[in-house]
Specification:
This protein has 166 residues and is an alpha+beta fold. The protein has four helices and six strands, in the order E-H-E-E-E-E-E-H-H-H. 16% of the residues are buried.
Length: 166
């Protein structure tokens, strides 16, 4: 969705409200995905010489656990507010995705917010033990003896490093 921010600053006296679907399935969030379209609520209202914009959305994020590789599905929420003045539109370092005409790309803004919101390391649970280095099964399911975990095979090329630790 494109929002003409420059025009709204100049003529917007009534609050603006839009609710729409946004497809973020083509984006990669450090290995996680948002496969279903997201319902987005975008609002803008003038407050003196400023425009206050809010962006809200909930998404079902799909990925895999960084420790055990099991599928992970979690809910993430974007709820952000931004205040803009007209002089901000000409600032080359302005943080929102604007084109040269002053149109705000709301879909890209939402994508950027989810980029910051979704953790780069997803876990199925905070206490996930991961995989056994010997058999490759989940540690909770493996039948290896505890001594086998402590004495995992050492690469002979790295044996010299072990002597440095002693």
């Amino acid at each position: 969705m494109q929002f003409d921010l420059r025009k709204f600053i100049a003529t917007g006296r009534q609050p603006y409200h839009a609710e729409f679907q946004c497809d973020l399935s083509a984006h990669d969030y450090a290995g996680a995905r948002i496969p279903q379209p997201v319902t987005v609520i975008f609002e803008a209202e003038t407050d003196g010489d400023e425009v206050r914009m809010t962006l809200r959305a909930n998404a079902s994020v799909h990925g895999e656990c960084a420790r055990c590789l099991d599928p992970v599905i979690r809910e993430e929420t974007v709820d952000t507010e931004w205040t803009v003045k007209e002089r901000d539109l000409d600032d080359p370092d302005f943080d929102l995705p604007l084109d040269e005409k002053g149109h705000l790309d709301v879909d890209e803004w939402l994508n950027q917010e989810f980029m910051f919101q979704i953790p780069t390391v997803l876990l199925c649970s905070a206490d996930c033990a991961g995989l056994c280095p010997v058999c490759g099964k989940k540690k909770a399911e493996c039948t290896c003896q505890p001594a086998e975990h402590a004495e995992a095979p050492v690469d002979t090329r790295l044996a010299i490093l072990k002597s440095l630790l002693n």
